[in-house]
Design goal:
By secondary structure, this protein is mostly helical. The protein has nine helices and no strands. About 50% of the residues lie in helices and about 0% in strands.
């Protein structure tokens, strides 16, 4: 997903950016910046995101009207949701325009800012496999209704395959077969190390490893 393009798409769809209204656009964008910066201070759920947008006012409420209301797990990239609004934080909420020096020290944060790792790094693949195991282990302790349908480790692995190197990378110039990959099993020593890490996590979490 090209989050820069989507940022302007969402602003246009929410009527924040309007044709032939430069002064109004600047006024609304400043309010949007303040709101996105506030979101970037802490991850919020859908209700709190909606409440913050409503309180901000000033032509920003249009974002709520374009929120996708379906419960589908996989949404097209042009659909905005309370979770995807953090993509807008990555583009426009890193610092607060009316307080640049102070906000530069305590900047807004988006998950899109997470540094992407090298695919060929053994540490990166160890993180993915361990993370995947931990998420599955946690899901098994929860009621079915509370289990996550999407394993974030799979999403991380997908980003590694795309070899993303920044929050603004996209697949425009990527060529090749996305399914043409080869998985090489770990050595017995590495499997033992991964199991040790998992056991340590269970001990900290107060769970019993199988």
């Amino acid at each position: 997903m090209d989050i820069i393009f989507n940022f302007f798409l969402f602003c246009r769809a929410a009527n924040i950016w309007r044709l032939n209204d430069p002064q109004g656009n600047w006024r609304r964008l400043k309010r949007l910046n303040i709101m996105l910066y506030a979101l970037g201070q802490k991850m919020q759920g859908q209700q709190k995101v909606t409440d913050l947008i409503t309180r901000t006012g000033g032509g920003i409420k249009g974002l709520i009207h374009i929120f996708n209301t379906t419960n589908s797990i996989y949404k097209p990239p042009f659909c905005l949701s309370a979770h995807r609004i953090y993509d807008m934080v990555a583009v426009f909420g890193g610092i607060k325009f009316n307080s640049v020096p102070r906000s530069f020290i305590k900047c807004g944060v988006s998950l899109r800012y997470i540094i992407h790792m090298r695919l060929k790094s053994a540490t990166a693949m160890e993180l993915v496999t361990t993370y995947w195991t931990l998420i599955n282990a946690i899901n098994e302790t929860l009621p079915i209704a509370e289990q996550n349908d999407i394993n974030e480790a799979e999403h991380l692995f997908h980003q590694l395959l795309l070899q993303k190197n920044s929050a603004y990378s996209n697949t425009t110039n990527k060529v090749g077969n996305v399914f043409g990959i080869t998985l090489v099993p770990d050595s017995r020593e590495q499997v033992t190390a991964n199991q040790r890490t998992l056991n340590e996590f269970f001990a900290i979490a107060g769970l019993v490893a199988e």
